[in-house]
Give the backbone structure.
Amino acid sequence: QLQLVESGGGLVQPGRSLRLSCTSSGDTLDYYAIGWFRQAPGMARERVSCIDSSGGRTGYADSVKGRFTIPRDNDKNTLYLQMNSLKLEDAAVYYCAANTRYAGQEVREYDYWGQGTQVTVSS
């Protein structure tokens, strides 16, 4: 059973950068498509970015295009969410999720979820 663990969240000022990590136990991430989602208080969980298992195809929400990237390092069994030029509205709990099929955009398309890591953006 794949288990996902996110790390790297914290408090950051607007305009600064933060890198989140997602790693696994129970199985390696090599054959999984991964999605990063976020959920702010009172809001629905939304997809931020996703990447297929080969790393060749990525997708980004319009709100983060040009600021966030989703590199994966299969040698380290880790996937990242590099967040640059952070804005106040990026504050949320960030989750990584996985499935063995494709890098989907919807919450329901993912079978495995981490516990989330809090990102707070404040001056």
The chain has a mean pLDDT of 95. The first strand starts at residue 3 and ends at 7. The chain is about 0% helix and 45% strand. The CA atoms of residues 20 and 105 lie 19 Å apart.
